[in-house]
Design brief:
The protein is mainly α. The protein has helices at residues 2-16, 20-53, 59-69, 74-85, 100-124, 130-136, 141-151, 153-168, 172-178, 188-197, 201-228. The chain is globular and about 70 Å long.
Length: 229
Amino acid sequence: MGYITEGFVTALKLLVQGDPETYSAVFTTLRVSSLSILAALSIGIPLGFLLGYYQFPGRRQIRAVVDTLLALPTVVVGLVVYALVTRRGPLGGLGLLFTIPGISVAQTILILPIVIAMTATAVSNLDVRFKQTVITLGADRRRTAVTALYESRYGVLAAAVAAYGRAIGEVGVSMMIGGNIKWHTRTITTAMALETGKGQFALGIALGLILLLLAFVVNWTLQVIKRKK
């Protein structure tokens, strides 16, 4: 057990002294997850709103597909994206493989169902008398829809936080698409997997502590949103 204690002590030193390798993985993780969450929210909120607000043929079936994709394995997403962006793939000319934008694209696909499903749930859970009340007050269809989205804001924020939490803790996609390149595409999770396998417990523990801190912040934010809701 001595090596574990020693690892924690060394890890704290790395964090306090601002070890470049440690913080390179941290900043890469934040950059990748921020890009992916922005893309997922831009696409997922409108789609989730349409799915939760409007009635149309096939709505239930589409919702079932979205809910199924919540359990989409990360390695499957990594495999599909890798096949598309590899040099021999149809998107190989974009040069996304082993880049931060490439990882962000894959993570966006991974967390998009979370945003869509939770946004749709938030909108569909509005009081059934909501539409009639707003229309009675003189709102047109566009304003009614905008008001519905505003009333669902806490559910949408919860979707964003949950999706961001999934992104920062993801390892499979980051490893397959990013290649775990030091100083370039190495994230917290991929660095932890590599360094622990090499017996570098101190760096692994340091990154693990930062990941736990990020996870705590994300979950605390989610709890605050739920209480406000």
